[in-house]
Amino acid sequence: MGEEDSIYTQDGTVDYRGDPAVRTKTGTWKACPFILGNEFCERLAYYGMSSNLVLYFKNHLNQHSATASKNANNWSGTCYITPLIGAFLADAYLGRYRTIAAFSIVYVIGMTLLTLSASVPGLKPTCVAKDDCHATAAQSAVCFVALYLIALGTGGIKPCVSSYGADQFDDADETEKKHKSSFFNWFYLSINVGALIASSVLVWVQENVSWGWGFGIPAMAMAIAVVSFFSGTRLYRNQKPGGSPFTRICQVVVASFRKYEVKVPENKALYETTDNESAVVGSRKLDHTDDFRFFDKAAVELESDQMLKGSVNPWKLCTVTQVEELKAIIRLLPVWATGIVFAAVYSQMGTLFVLQGDKMDAHIGPNFEIPAASLSIFDTLSVIFWVPVYDRIIVPMARKYTGHPNGITQLQRMGIGLFISIIAMLSAAILELVRLREVRRHNYYELDHMPMSIFWQVPQYFLIGCAEVFTFIGQLEFFYEQAPDAMRSLGSALSLTTVALGNYLSSLLVTIVTKFSTKDGSPGWIPDNLNYGHIHYFFFLLVILSVKNLIAYLFIAKWYKYKRPLGTLR
């Protein structure tokens, strides 16, 4: 076999399209255990530190409730913004395999530094009692440097792992294509199995053993994630990076404005390569669509577009596929925007739900006390319950009635999740109304933990988990499928940024309501002692925003046009 036909790339991975004979030896479910194992360990590491982070900020870095909540939201939001960096590098230059490998190293460095900041004398905060600690500015700085290194590391992993797993299934093979839809369900399940261990065992370790071990165990889990990923190297299928997607998008925009006076012909074909393959590496050709016709001007061929030796100037003339790539991204943006409010609802599990539970009775029997952050275990159990139910029961039943291969469309799936999230926030608001009524009735204002079981929070966590299965998994699959082939990491990153902006939105709302609700000496909606607060007002605010968001989503989903790929990947 000649060098140009080698099935192995420079980093040892398999380019199965170089030799179709190896197609049966690579990809599909054979490669997925290593990818799912990587995601399980990485999410165990992530949730192992993030689930209880708001209480670490409050009790060990000595931050106020509102400040701790904002800092946790801002960090979590950054973890979902940095995927834009990783996605760009993966799609444009490095490919998904190398991007995951490189950023995993940054992630491990960040986890190690965070562990040191919580365990080494001089770096860790000084404590006079269990939850009475004081951190210097330098100690807080080390903690935040570690956290934002982790945020950078996750930026190269999150947008690529789900897409990389989906790459192991060939769209040209109907059997493999059907398995791809199942992969997203089981991928999300692996996330939540990791989260289950994190929110139960690791949160308990942080509360009852030490934060050094509480952060150290996730650091070890991340090291195992790296080993798991590299173990499957020879089984992976890899798609070549297609060059900068932003350059191609800019070329279409520039070419369109250069030809703003040109009329798009009704009968004459627009410019496209004559080959069966797309001019964009790693992408299939896309069929022309009639919306956003202004950008079609970029594919109208003029004599002035030609350069020397018959080549064309890409800043004057673009292919139909290139134009349709831009249109596909534009169509995704309204759907993407409706995910932000849902993500704001989801972010409450790591902030206000925890602070709410921290004021309730957390005892199981006379001697064991469950940490408030561990209630997120019921969100995870909900996901673990609903994923197989959805994949094995709901989809086959729906398929019989709709004839759709996935039972229901991805847009329908996401809409159901948005509706369930409204019920979840109503549940949280009603619980807080009941809790405050008991506080007033029995004068529990100064109690650290009122005699009302924390397990009354279970319904709101369980409903959020159910909503996740519909909305977040639907988003993963939708943005992977509808993004142009050479921009799939970018599509996954785009879906993740809804989580980031949801966290930022929640942080902004907390800032606004704190400013306006604390005037004239009032304790406000979210005081340090929630027994004097009104966080149910905040939950009702999210209900109102979610209802308006769902109405907007229904109009957007009705308008949306699915992309139409032609041929096979290059």
TrEMBL record:
It comes from the Eukaryota. Coiled coil: none annotated. InterPro entries: MFS_trans_sf (IPR036259), POT_fam (IPR000109), PTR2_symporter_CS (IPR018456). PROSITE patterns: PTR2_1 (PS01022), PTR2_2 (PS01023). GO terms for biological process: oligopeptide transport. It is found in: Membrane. Keywords: Membrane, Transmembrane, Transmembrane helix, Transport. Belongs to the major facilitator superfamily. Proton-dependent oligopeptide transporter (POT/PTR) (TC 2.A.17) family. It holds the Pfam family PTR2. This is Protein NRT1/ PTR FAMILY 8.1-like. The chain crosses the membrane at residues 100-118, 138-157, 186-205, 211-230, 332-355, 375-395, 416-434, 454-473, 493-514, 534-556. Gene3D superfamilies: MFS general substrate transporter like domains. GO terms for molecular function: transmembrane transporter activity. One of its GO terms (cellular component) is membrane. It is a multi-pass membrane protein.
